[in-house]
Amino acid sequence: MNPEQLADLLRYRMEQAHETLREAEILLKESALRGTINRAYYAMFYALLALLATKRLGTSKHSGALALFDREFVKTGLFPRELSRSLHLAFDRRQTHDYGEMIPVNRQIAERTLTDAKTFVAAIESHLRSTGHLAATQEETNE
Questions:
Q1: What are the boundaries of each domain within the chain?
Q2: Mean pLDDT by 10 residues, the chain (143 residues)
């Protein structure tokens, strides 16, 4: 993948992350809590895929992507352990509420997952910008 293709992929993945955060917010407003958790996790996952692409890393499994994040970015000190904990928790919640039977969904858990997702996506985006992997948006360059 050449640098231009990588830049396009990173923009695409971060757009996916932001769009999915918006979906989670809409679902929360409508008290669709299971969907809120799902979309919040996927927002984190899309941002993670962008981050992994900067090291030409990828995997077909969600658990593999989480493990790569821990190995390449948390254990090396680039990101705090708290981001790893929130990512793993969101993954577990999504698994539980998407596939578990008769599992009630708590509004506070949905809200917390969405808050954690916003923090995670913002941290990844900030890192991508600070390392020059993601260019500033047109709005930011006009400020």
A1: 3-132
A2: 91 98 98 97 98 93 96 97 98 94 91 98 97 71 42
